[in-house]
């Protein structure tokens, strides 16, 4: 059989979402951000809610999310996306409001905004891409950097005694009553991407049903920051990130698993 | 229907916000302005007009909530006092950079640091010289009465939406806490979501319909684009100077000596003018109502008429620099003011005029 016989629309499982623009992604080849963007836009498209969706972009690698997602987006100050989203959801209760944030944004500078938006049970979706490093500023230590992991500000590896333990923000917010759905996913294989999309869809469905806050962590790679090839970084992620940040649902329908 | 009431400045401002059809208020308690959010919470504006009121986890969160709602074209405001405004400055710089309409109220207390909870005007520099990072200015309104605490809310929103820019109401603990009679305006209807979309569809993020997507950001990684943004801002400020300068003159027609004062200090200086005239000293008062734009030209011209100018401020000498810049060394300009929360008396102000300028 010729390979061209297989490449047909009906056989296509993954493609670029109609809600992604034609702008060239600013992400490094091999980075998970592009897939996470695409899955989010696929969900918005499939639910038919693009006219009522407002995104909040962070500061960090995904600051330019508005260049790639063809929806209305406001770009927040570093870490403040959950506060920005809170106000939009409060003043436009019928809209779908989501934040898209990295680990430095959400789990360091924006910790207070994250915890309190979660605690108030704001009717929003938080998509949290955790790659254990500050990518945009050039590979500095993040709150989620693993023990012993090297970065430009932990050049000899993260030392717990002086730098603290990697922060499990997702487990933390799962304990707050206002949070309805908490899950941790990844997007590095087709199988994982499919599961992640299902989780993102569930999160947006929760907004539709006005269930409160849905929190989707996506453990991702940063091959540039980790100084690895894309493939090496995915293997390293499976072997090192997943044991500390295990994949799966943590809280479903308001009930801790 | 207007209504005459006896109210605190902070309460009058809060009531005016409801009546002006404001969509949302986000705040955090701090003395001496906590009455604003207390009054709003007590009044249940969500029932009166559908206005959203939320106590945020910090001043930082509150100003970023303002940024969020302003991004969507809603009429939104926050209030705080000096240390809290310092925390909000990052967000205020973002509002200016992203060209968003919003109203921020500062009921000033003494500083620096935790300072004091007593009235002060020591945030003049912070208000008119930028405060936050980058090339931007705020349109700054300085109320001198409880009536103006009420009236300036609507004025501030008119300017904020005219220019798509943040506006600061620079009050102080004296104006915020004192009670005066106030004529409250009738209730304005809040815009419906459809009206907001219709009015602001060219820029606000309300959901992408059959138009290009709207993006709110202050980021331009290309230097030429960023410079164009800064130039656009500067153009707005030039237009503000031409069209929206506000000031008030009191007995300046024949004045030989001039007080320049704003807000609570202007009230005290007005009394000092009367005391001076009773003693045969022809004093007058120029009261800038907007601190940016500043009445530079008015001062420049008055400097041809008077023999000396005293800038009266509840601080260690801040606005006096702008007075000096405006008069270009034509006449002596001195500063008088108490700090630490002490409010100068009209007698002290007159004595300062006699000692620093006349003698």
Automatic annotation (TrEMBL), chain A:
Entry keyword annotation includes Oxidoreductase: yes
Superkingdom per UniProt: Bacteria
Limits of the Thiamine pyrophosphate enzyme TPP-binding domain: 67-217
Protein's UniProt keywords contain Cytoplasm: no
Listed GO biological process terms: cellular respiration; small molecule metabolic process
Gene3D superfamilies: 3.40.50.970
InterPro entries the record matches: 2-oxoacid:Fd_oxidoreductase (IPR051457), THDP-binding (IPR029061), TPP_enzyme_TPP-bd (IPR011766)
UniProt protein name: 2-oxoglutarate ferredoxin oxidoreductase subunit beta
Keywords: Oxidoreductase
Listed GO MF terms: oxidoreductase activity, acting on the aldehyde or oxo group of donors, iron-sulfur protein as acceptor; thiamine pyrophosphate binding
UniProtKB/TrEMBL annotation, chain B:
Coiled-coil portions: 216-243
Entry keyword Transcription regulation: no
Keywords, alphabetical: Coiled coil, Oxidoreductase
Organism domain of life: Bacteria
One Pfam family hit: POR_N
Residues of the Pyruvate flavodoxin/ferredoxin oxidoreductase pyrimidine binding domain: 15-241
Start and end residues of each Pyruvate:ferredoxin oxidoreductase core domain: 255-349
An annotated Gene Ontology molecular function: oxidoreductase activity
Entry keyword Mitochondrion: no
PANTHER family to which the protein is assigned, alphabetical: SUBUNIT OF PYRUVATE:FLAVODOXIN OXIDOREDUCTASE, SUBUNIT OF PYRUVATE:FLAVODOXIN OXIDOREDUCTASE-RELATED
Name of the protein described by the UniProt record: 2-oxoglutarate ferredoxin oxidoreductase subunit alpha
Taxonomic source organism: Lutibacter oceani
